[in-house]
Amino acid sequence: MIPATRPSVFAIGILGGILCLPTTSRADAPNYEPDAMRPAPSGAANPSKKKRKRARGPVFQGQLASLHERRELPLDKPSGHIELYAVNFRETLEVDLYDEDGEFDQEAVDQLNHVFRCRRTDTEKSIDPRLFEMLSRIYDKFGRRLELVSGFRNQKRTSSFHFHGSASDVRIPGVSEKELYAFAKTLDTGGMGLGIYPRAGFIHVDIRPEPSFRWVDNSPPGTSDMGRPHAKSGKSKIKKTS
After folding, report:
1. How far apart are CA 126 and CA 151, in angstroms?
2. Model confidence at 48: pLDDT above 80
3. Crossing angle of helices 129-142/177-185, nearest 10°?
4. Separation CA 70–CA 75 (nearest Å)
5. What is the pLDDT of residues 73-113, one digit of tens each?
6. Does pLDDT of 59 surpass 80?
7. Alpha carbons within 13 A on the beta-carbon side of 213
8. Residue 168 within any structural domain of the chain
9. What is the pTM of this model?
10. How many angstroms separate the most distant Cα atoms in the chain?
11. What CATH number does the domain containing 162 carry?
């Protein structure tokens, strides 16, 4: 019978040293903590709080209305009924443009001319009755009272159709300016100016000589040069009337 061998002192010592190795990481070992869990260094920018720059488009964009954008069929005669609220004077008016014979009712036209008077000077001017017919068509479509933001303007810029009494800035509560603008475009048989003012919340409608003109103006409400191109320094201005 072979006697069992006893482990040597040397082997026991090695085994004991292995079992006694520390299980915790060394103080100088690399730190593998995820970056997201580490506190940001003092003064470091937080990417989530960086302000994003919004791309800014041109304030004014306008162009002639092409032939295919214009209405080919003649317009039907409107009902002649108009309900208006003049926001500058807080006046309400409800009239019928036509008399029993289908002609313009002069008393109704005079009442509309008064509502369209200049806000700054209180001056009245005879408004092109074809503009009233356009507004009546808009009323017939939506069946809601129109708000007159601006009518006749007794101003220095005489190229404006507001000055000539053939332009209006209007809106309808509950109807977006995009929807209003889209319908107004269907009324253009030629000789019409249409502008949309998304930030101010209204559209411009005017009667003018051929050709028709369309534009988008992103000027803030009350800007003095609304309806005109914003020329950059060193560049010539584009002449346009509204």
Report:
1. 11
2. no
3. 120
4. 12
5. 999 999 999 999 999 999 999 999 999 999 999 999 999 99
6. yes
7. 21
8. yes
9. 0.72
10. 140
11. 3.30.1380
Number of domains observed in the structure of the chain:
1
Cα(158)–Cα(33) distance, rounded to whole angstroms?
A: 72
The answer as to whether 5 is a domain residue is: no
Of residues 75 and 42, more confidently modeled: 75
| Whether 48 contacts 203, CB under 8 Å | no
Residue 158, domain extent: 81-217
Residue that the structure tokens 């004077």 belong to: 89
pLDDT at 15 over 60: no
- Per residue, the 3-state secondary structure of 139-206, as one string, reads HHHHCCCEEEEECCCCCCCCCCCCCCCCEEEEEECCECHHHHHHHHHCCCCCCEEEEEECCCCEEEEE
Residue whose tokens read 């009337």: 241
Which pLDDT score is estimated for 224? 59
Is pLDDT above 60 for 8? Answer: no
